[in-house]
Design brief:
49% of the residues lie in helices and 14% in strands. By secondary structure, the protein is α/β, with parallel strands linked by helices. Strand 1 and strand 2 form a beta hairpin.
Length: 310
């Protein structure tokens, strides 16, 4: 059996046992060769572990979106009934102290200044399609888990809301900062937060420009499991172990919840089109605020990368 695909995945010491299991021949090899996603499959637990490995500022650039689109397609091709079994899909991040900063603000500035509504809508639709496919677990009877070990901002926070379970280390933070530069999150926050915690609380989070701790989100039910720093990986593995006997019930419960939501891709797309129209109303001073946020995030990421390399 060919193990070459898994060799490209850089593993931590704790993850090394996962690499001992052979990658099933039916899984598309390209799944393990994505530029900005590290992927490994653990046969024993039927779990697919994925870590974002951004090139540059940890955000949803066009390159990252393309990898996520391919990732989902390869999973649909290789896993499911009569294919390779998949019971758990886990997403985390390799970026030090950051899950994801969200949308590509540099790209947004360029498109807004160029009055390119079509490109803004296209970007939003791509995000919504990825989100919708994840909400529906790619049509596979699996549980999706977001592992948060740092800051989840904007679209990073929105992406997490599409997972069945969020496991966060205590130092993780969450925020929707778009309102500070005259915009709002346009790829899922309104639809998902309103359904999960109600419209009033959703408005509070979306309009406040506040940073929320993992403890605060655990208290209102958005974070499902809160663990100490450095314990996230162990917590996910323990969650998988404890969930195995009740897997069918958990999957069924999540399907029932989403049926009650009545959320579809058309709703997500219509909201992102409204978001694009609002973005085109931003003034130059708003774009300068956006630029300062990008610069601040870049400095934080640079310091974190320097510290991890030392």
């Amino acid at each position: 059996m060919d193990n070459s695909a898994s060799k490209a995945v850089p593993l931590t010491d704790e993850e090394e046992p996962f690499a001992q299991s052979a990658v099933h021949n039916a899984i598309p090899e390209d799944l393990f060769s994505l530029a900005e996603l590290d992927v490994l499959y653990e046969e024993q637990s039927c779990a697919l572990w994925t870590y974002m490995r951004p090139q540059g500022r940890p955000s949803f650039t066009k390159t990252m979106l393309a990898d996520f689109e391919a990732w989902q397609t390869f999973i649909e091709q290789g896993f499911g009934p009569d294919k390779v079994p998949l019971r758990y899909l886990v997403l985390g991040s390799r970026a030090p102290d950051v899950f994801c900063y969200g949308g590509d603000l540099e790209l947004f500035q360029s498109l807004i200044r160029g009055r390119d509504r079509d490109a803004l809508v296209e970007y939003g639709h791509r995000c919504c399609r990825i989100l919708d496919r994840n909400i529906n677990a790619l049509g596979i009877d699996m549980l999706t888990v977001g592992l948060v070990q740092g800051a989840a901002l904007g679209g990073g926070f929105e992406a997490l809301l599409s997972f069945d379970f969020i496991i966060a280390e205590r130092h993780a933070t969450f925020a929707l900062p778009e309102i500070m530069f005259g915009l709002y999150p346009g790829m899922g926050a309104h639809a998902l937060l309103s359904r999960k915690i109600g419209s009033a609380m959703a408005d509070r989070i979306i309009l406040s420009n506040e940073t929320y701790s993992a403890q605060e989100l655990f208290d209102i039910g958005l974070v499902h499991l809160l663990v100490e720093p450095g314990e996230g990986l162990h917590a996910v593995r323990d969650f998988i172990k404890k969930s195995d006997r009740r897997h069918a019930g958990l999957v069924g419960a999540r399907k029932a919840t989403k049926r009650v939501w009545g959320l579809d891709l058309d709703e997500l797309n219509r909201i992102t089109e409204m978001w694009a129209d609002t973005a085109l109303q931003l003034r130059e001073q708003d774009l300068k605020v956006m630029s300062r946020l990008v610069a601040a995030q870049a400095r934080v990421a640079a310091r974190a990368n320097a510290g991890s390399a030392a």
